[in-house]
Write a structure and sequence with these properties.
The chain is of the alpha+beta class. It has five helices and 16 strands.
Length: 357
């Protein structure tokens, strides 16, 4: 079979394949079958494809010029299964989003500025809007730079990602169950959706400190089974239906910083959907920080002493930390998310033709 033009990029702490929409079949079923073949999904090693055998590297971004004049490009995110041959479009990915602007310039879907470029992106999965800004000296994307992010070795070019219209991205509401706190299997949780549906619980509710290394969580089958039972019930409460085969909602356990976590304001351990995350997703981090800011929500006591009004929240995770900028208004009857943004990096890894089986 003829190959398909694609680019492999690292966006934030994820890695995926980026395609121009017109290079793929228009029929979603044909498109998904092709992508599963290219990625090697259905085999936990993904040995016969381009996937990296973990969810963080089994991702696809499909980019096209936007028909809405408010945006430059549209971005459709697909999460491909690893051991299971599944494709989900029920959420977006803020990490791959960091690479969408550079990819759009590389494929001439939008023009580059002489020094830097801003690309307005519509996330097709959720309807959310984002603006990414990155350096383009001489009209070419500069992937090198001195910005470091946790979970990625070395440094790369800075990508500023600012979000809009993230509230209720997949569920239609910031608090999709209608409650600040629900109890599931005896565990208090806050179900939140500010760009990503997330079930927030305290690590202590699972007998954890919230500072466990990734390897310990990965080896704890009993913990993962509890997380799965919790998120399935939460999915029903959040209006997502049966999430047995879905990657959302995510589950994040929150805890206070450990001694020596200089600058960290909130420690987290995330599961997608039940496999521990070695870091934390961008929009997941935004949703978790938003939840903790809400008086009465699970983990709100961890925000005692945080500045009122706009705040930069440094979130700890197994690989390091992430900075999230939030402005959440709490004066009205309902919380108002005014702004959310993160700093990421992205890098082009390979550009060429991918071949399905």
């Amino acid at each position: 079979m003829d190959g398909v033009r694609c680019m492999q990029m690292r966006g934030g702490t994820s890695k995926g394949l980026y395609f121009v929409a017109t290079d793929l079949p228009a029929d979603p079923a044909e498109r998904d079958a092709l992508l599963l073949s290219i990625m090697g999904s259905g085999d936990p090693r993904q040995i016969d494809g381009l996937g990296g055998a973990v969810p963080l590297t089994s991702k696809v971004a499909i980019v096209s010029p936007s028909d809405d004049h408010a945006f430059d490009v549209d971005y459709l995110f697909l999460q491909l299964g690893v051991g299971e041959a599944t494709v989900s479009d029920r959420q977006t990915c803020g990490n791959l989003l960091a690479g969408v602007g550079p990819f759009a310039v590389e494929r001439a879907l939008t023009a580059a500025g002489d020094a830097e470029t801003e690309v307005r992106i519509r996330a097709v999965n959720t309807g959310a809007a984002a603006t990414v800004r990155f350096a383009t000296p001489g009209g070419r994307v500069a992937y090198g730079g001195d910005t470091a992010i946790a979970g990625v070795p070395g440094t790369a070019g800075r990508v500023d990602v600012a979000f809009a219209d993230t509230v209720g991205s997949s569920t239609g509401a910031l608090l999709p169950t209608g409650n600040l706190v629900d109890e599931i299997d005896g565990v208090p949780v806050t179900c939140v959706d500010n760009g990503m549906p997330v079930v927030v619980a305290e690590a202590a509710s699972f007998g954890l400190t919230g500072h466990e290394p990734y390897e310990a969580l990965r080896a704890d089958d009993a913990l993962q089974a509890r997380i799965d039972a919790l998120r399935r019930q939460a999915g029903e409460l959040m209006g997502l239906g049966d999430v047995r085969d879905s990657s959302v909602p995510k589950t994040t356990l929150v805890a206070p910083p450990a001694e020596g976590d200089d600058g960290v304001m909130l420690q987290t351990r995330t599961f997608i959907p039940v496999v521990p995350h070695s870091a934390i997703g961008i929009l997941g981090a935004v949703s978790v920080a938003t939840a903790v800011l809400l008086p009465g929500a699970v983990g709100h006591h961890l925000a005692a002493g945080w500045p009122r009004g706009p705040v930069d929240v440094t979130i700890g995770h197994p690989s390091g930390r992430m900075l999230v900028a939030l402005d959440v208004g709490l004066g009205g009857e309902q919380p108002e998310v005014r702004r959310s943004a993160v700093v990421r990096t992205a890098r082009k890894l390979a550009d060429g033709v991918a071949f399905p089986r």
